[in-house]
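sorry to bug you again but im stuck and you know this stuff better than me. theres a chain ive been looking at and ive put its sequence and its fold in token form underneath. id like you to explain what the token line says about the fold, in plain words if possible. anything you notice is useful, everything is just below.
___
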Amino acid sequence: MPAAKFPPPLAEGDRVGVAALSGPIDPSALEAGLGTLLDLGLQPVLASNLESDSGLFAGGDDERLEAFTKLATDPALKAIFFARGGHGILRVLPKIDWSLLARFPRAYIGYSDVTPLLNLIVDRLELVAFHGPMVAVECAAGLEPEERESLWSLLTGAEHFEMSVEGSGEAARGVLKGGCLSLLAATTGTEFAPDFRGAVLFWEDVAEPLYRLDRMLTQLKLSGSLSEINAMVAGRIELLESDRATGGIARLMENLGSEVDVPAAWGLASGHCRPNLTLPLGAEVSLDLEAGILRLES
């Protein structure tokens, strides 16, 4: 599939939305995260449900979707940042009006539970979406200098970036897709599964033992989702000591890369890790395993 277009770039002083489509938001974390957005020179506009708490979610399904849609269709906003992940976006995907969102192109930034939405923005809106820090998580803790640089450079129109990886195999090139593995597996067999044809598939996750990671990757393989990818890249994933003793992510990726006959890399610092660097899902990237670099192709 062709690369998506980058959304309009941000600049200091821009108004940006803060949405909550997943779990309830801790007020102190939200306040701290909003401070980081202000430090970036951005003016946050809050979704109406940010203070809602219905147990698992930041309000009911319709409440969360209505609040998000109001932000996503506000012509004064240049981007939508997500407050946190958790669970909830899968429940509202069938009700999203994609034709309406297409009228208001803008940057969307998040990860974890936001994974299905980011990939649908790429596939249905043909816009690059940003796999990066969230307001009540990394922004609340304070962005590390390289996180700040990665996020801001891509949001303001950078045409180049390089990130370090390890791996084996030939060089590869394709459209960057993916995100949190458990969410990629959860959409398999549904109309919301990403289109991975010609993709450099990135995946990461948190608090998952190696056998469960292998099971989810096997599910993607058996479903045919990996049959036309150009390469695979795993994130920087913390494993149990017993899992590290088996060869860990490196051995898992080498075996899987051999099974699907594509180059395999690992150690990309994005997602549930620090630093959580920003990735432009939908953009054309190249994987240079001799140099150990994933780079954006302008």
